[in-house]
Amino acid sequence: MIKRKHPKYVRSFVDRHGHTRFYFQRGGGKDIPLSGLPWSPTFMTAYEAALGDRKAVIVNQTKAGTVDAAMLAYLQSDGFSKGLAKSTRDTRRRILTNFAKQHGDKRTLLMPADCDAAHCLQDDPGQSTWLQESDARLH
To answer: Rounded CA gap, 75 and 67, in Å?
Structure first.
């Protein structure tokens, strides 16, 4: 068997179940698990995300046209990762993640054109028809 060289900052080990695990490890930071086999497309996507200090995204779990997909596309964009200060990125990521936990599976196409954060994040469900319509279609 030929031993392949791993990409920079990648380490591997065999866990107690006999599975080979791969982690991105750059000095001082947390180890980031990488999915797939080294040099595969899935692995390289996770590796590049870890190298760029972004969260690895598994595309298969996100439906196109949903709030989740829009949020992930924004979080992966250069405008977000390179154009904003770290504190701004952290704040926006926290707000978007909380919003996506509640509404990530809803279709963005159903959002009204005038839907802003204040309108869509209202606590009173009677005031947001987009949320009611989306919930009705999902259930």
So the answer is: 12
